[in-house]
Amino acid sequence: MTPGRTKGMGPYLLILPAVLLLGIFLVLPYLNIVLMSFRVPGQGTPYGVGFTAGNYVKFFTDSFYILQVVNTLWIGLLTTAICLVVGFPVAWQLARADMKFRGLAYGLVLSPLLVGIVIRSYGWTILLGNNGLINRTLLNIGLIERPLPLMYNALGIVIALVHVFLPFMILPIMAAIQGVDPSLHAAARSLGASKTTAFRRIILPLSLPGIQAGCILVFVLSLSAYVTPSLIGGLRVKTMAVTVVDALIDTFQWPFGSALALCLSVTGAIAVVIFARLTRMKWKAS
Amino acid sequence: MTEVSIEKLTKTFGSARAVDGISVRIANGEFISLLGPSGCGKTTTLKMIAGFEDVSGGAIRFDGQDVVNVPAEKRDIGMVFQNYALFPHMTVEQNLAFGLEMRKVAKPEMRSRISRVLEMVQLTGYAERYPRQLSGGQQQRVALGRALVIEPKILLLDEPLANLDAKLREEMRVFIRDLQRRVGITTVYVTHDQAEAMTMSDRVVVMFGGRIAQIGVPADIYERPENLDVAQFVGQVNLVKGTVREGGSDGRCAVETTFGVIEVHSARMHAPGTAVTLTLRPEAIELGAPGKGAKGTVLSSYYSGSLIDYRIELEGGDIIHTQAFPHNRFADKERVGVYAPADRFWLLGAAA
Amino acid sequence: MSRKVLTVYCLLVYAFLLAPILVVVGASFNAGSFLTFPPQGLSLRWYVTFFNNEVFMRAIRTSLWVAAVSTVISTLIGTAAALYYVQHAGRGKEAIRIAMLSPLLLPEVLTAISLLFFVYSVGIGTQTMFAMIVGHVLITLPFVFINVSASLETFDPAWDMAARSLGAGRFTRFRRIMLPLIKPGVIGGALFAFIISFDIFTISFMLKGIGTSTLPIQLFDYLRTNFTPEAAAVSTVSIVLTLVVVIVSEKVLGLRIHRF
């Protein structure tokens, strides 16, 4: 270190508050919840004395929960896939096209992030409800006779989740495409590749890290989404996150709730790892 | 007015010796260049003089006082950085005022000093501009002004012209040199550009691998290089192999070469028959009709406007480069006489 | 895809992104008692109802208070951490970055639950706003960190050296050179932290004490049982508040906020 620059303990004081905050209020609570998931359920208290693996046994042997995990994963996958298909062209246009209203378009992509998740989900209930804007309009024009079932099912949840998380897909992909030197595309063209081939062979592989980041982000966020499934799915369709939160808020089943939450998170993490592996192998092969 | 004395200065990074025990005395008002390829330790040396880099060993003295333990902000140096390092959120005037504020200079004096320096660097009328509103050359002059306005003991410049285009670079060489002469400030200039070092400096310090290869006035460095590294670094050079015919004890040495027997200066005795290498700069060579000097054949020529470069194969197979004014043109494959005056040959290692 | 098709496609996506927000704003001016389309005339009656609804007004005050406190804390902690990360971190640099972003990478539900159990295990509980504010600081910290480190990365170390060569001590250099140059990043990070905090749901939902509901919680509770356009009026006011913050930061202060 150069003389006069902060010496000794000085620099560590800068990082100390963050270390304390994350250590005490993130690491310890996470360790605590793992411990909690092995505790004996209590009678009238959040948890009893002693430890057991029973919470996990209950989870893995109850088809209700397994089915719900599958359901949640399916909704997450669907949301991610749709976000990718819907978001990629937008990310591409934002990154590359010389548009007059690029700033405005960028603002539009960002705008959902600036509006609370409750409000956005609420907006979808207005649109998708049986008396909602879409059904009313279709009924009025006479295209349908009975309201379409858009809400209180997986379809409604996926539509709303795609909306809620789309910016998280678009922004990393846009950043990745912007990071690809435009002359590479030109170089590929000069070597005789068609526009499509240049895109497929050059741009797509090079923007893969952004796609990967976007997919992981959307998938993880949709697995743990609570507000949207809760408002759109109502009581009929429940995702894991909703079940977990309700189990804790309403019934105070702390040990079992912890086990549920951990199983959900670990499942999500495994899915992410598998996805990262798959895309990385593809990256090496291409 | 300060004399800088560097003694056995060393800088180690782990086991690597970036600067390996160098010693230089820089006289009051002298302009010295540290010249060398990247990684030779010249910038590290400058940073140690400035106080931005710890010293692993040795001493740096300003007028006899060791400053090794003085922090950079107390050393009273003026420094110009490669990318100028102008404060982007301050106007030209505020940039110039910064160092004066640190020295608690009174407002009226500050104003007069700033306007004097602005005039000196030819930027009167630019006081209110922000750095980004200035061209590269103007930013360069602000950086120079900012370093000089505090009237420092010494001026340090770290490759200040590297980011300018060729034409501006040549103008700035003259500008900086004239300014330095007028102010009379002791100056250390770091560069990897030999032409820059040659045209600007009183003396040049050539560095390789953390050590000083040669210290001398520009003409010494160019015409009497200490070793092959120096000879090749400061310009194109032909190497002429020879055999010592007579060692000579009078500081002279007769060497047999394709150019005939050449008598060169040598402080050292050489046994007859020793193989030696002489250097010969391309522009020292005269080409003419066959007969005078060595016999050669033109291989190719390169026209560059003011000069023509020839590649010539000597009898015996050696290939040399020459540089000549284009008044006398030779065609490819033409046979020519290759001549150079004896005093333009230089025996490598002669001073050792 | 040809350029025209691409443009139309993108416009449709933008419409999709804006639709639910526009619908909420539109619904807030509905004169009827229920959310009906087309609206039964235009009216500001639901705004009047909202402004006279002490429950919602208290929720807004709580939200603003929680957002303000957690923004101040996470700006201080996040800026200091970013300073360390960019200027002093050696080999552990990547680890620090991941640790600082971890609240963003971990599922919010899990963080909320963990924190809930933890505050009860150590006897802090949720009677005070402490737990909720800690949760908000955790979630907003990454945004401050991202923005401040981004502006620090563009800080040229030569500026600091130049100031030193001109005689400036450490404190002066920080105050006169570094602080003004990273100010946009700090303010941008703080504004983003404020906006994020204002919208945090799951953390607040799990960690709220009695009578300390933030606006999103109050709105959520309301929506589970009511369908009047009052919720739309509340939402619109919330959107406008956020928009004002963003426009002021972008236009007046000329800031660019880094999201990633």
Could you name the key traits of this structure?
heterotrimer, A: 286 residues, mainly alpha, MetI-like fold, two-stranded antiparallel ribbon, 13 helices, disordered C terminus, B: 352 residues, alpha+beta, Rossmann fold, OB fold (Dihydrolipoamide Acetyltransferase, E2P), six-stranded mixed sheet, five-stranded antiparallel sheet, 8 helices
Which homologous superfamily in CATH is the superfamily of the domain at 63-117 and 153-285 in chain A? MetI-like
Quaternary class: heterotrimer
Strand arrangement, major sheet of chain B? 6-7-8-3-9-10
Content-based structural category of chain A? mainly alpha
Q: What name is given to the CATH topology of the domain at 63-117 and 153-285 in chain A?
A: MetI-like fold
**Distance between the amino and carboxyl termini of chain A:** 44 Å
Order of helices and strands of chain A: HEEHHHHHHHHHHHH
Fill in the CATH topology of the largest domain in chain B. Answer: Rossmann fold
What is the helix/strand order of chain B?
A: EEEHEEEHHHEHEHEEHHEEEEEEEEEE
User: What is the makeup of the main sheet of chain A?
Assistant: 2 strands, antiparallel
Rg of chain A (CA only): 24 Å
Q: Largest interface by residue count? A: A-C, 81 and 81 residues
Structural class of chain B: alpha+beta
Q: Write down the overall geometry of chain B.
A: globular
How many helices of chain A in DSSP terms? 13
Which CATH class of the largest domain in chain B?
Alpha Beta
Mean pLDDT of chain B: 90
The CATH architecture of the largest domain in chain B can be given as 3-Layer(aba) Sandwich
Helix content of chain A: over 70%
Uncertain spans of chain A: 1-6, 281-286
Describe this structure in words.
Chain B: This is Spermidine/putrescine import ATP-binding protein PotA. Chain B: It is a peripheral membrane protein. Chain B: InterPro entries: AAA+_ATPase, ABC_SmlMolc_Importer, ABC_transporter-like_ATP-bd, ABC_transporter-like_CS, Mo/tungstate-bd_C_term_dom, P-loop_NTPase, PotA-like, Transp-assoc_OB_typ2. Chain B: Residues 4-234 form the ABC transporter domain. The complex is a heterotrimer of chains A (286), B (352) and C (260). With 286 residues, chain A is mainly α. Chain A contains 13 helices and two strands; from the N terminus they run αββαααααααααααα. A two-stranded antiparallel sheet of chain A has the order 1-2. In chain A, strand 1 and strand 2 form a beta hairpin. Chain A is globular and about 70 Å long. Chain A starts with 9 loop residues before the first helix and ends with a helix. Chain B is globular and about 75 Å long. In chain B, helix 5 links the parallel strand 7 (154-158) and strand 8 (186-191). Chain B has eight helices and 20 strands. Chain B has 352 residues and is α+β, with helices and mostly antiparallel strands. Chain B has helices at 42-50, 92-102, 107-120, 136-149, 166-183, 194-200, 218-223, 228-233, and strands at residues 4-13, 16-26, 31-35, 57-62, 65-66, 77-80, 154-158, 186-191, 203-208, 211-216, 238-246, 252-257, 260-265, 275-280, 286-288, 294-303, 308-314, 319-324, 335-339, 346-347. Chain B folds into two domains: 4-232, Rossmann fold; 236-350, OB fold (Dihydrolipoamide Acetyltransferase, E2P) (Beta Barrel). Helices cover 24% and strands 34% of the residues of chain B. By secondary structure, chain C is mainly alpha-helical. Chain C has one domain (55-252): MetI-like (MetI-like fold, Orthogonal Bundle), CATH 1.10.3720. Chain C is built from eleven helices and no strands. Chain C has helices spanning 3-27, 45-51, 54-87, 93-105, 108-121, 130-153, 157-165, 170-199, 202-207, 215-225, 230-252. In chain C, helix 1 (3-27) packs across helix 11, helix 3 (54-87) runs antiparallel to helix 8 (170-199) and helix 7 packs antiparallel against helix 8 (170-199). The radius of gyration of chain C is 22 Å and the shape is globular. Chain C starts with a helix and ends in an 8-residue tail after the last helix. Chains in contact: A-B, A-C, B-C. Chain A binds chain B through residues 1-4, and chain B through 51-54, 69, 71-73.
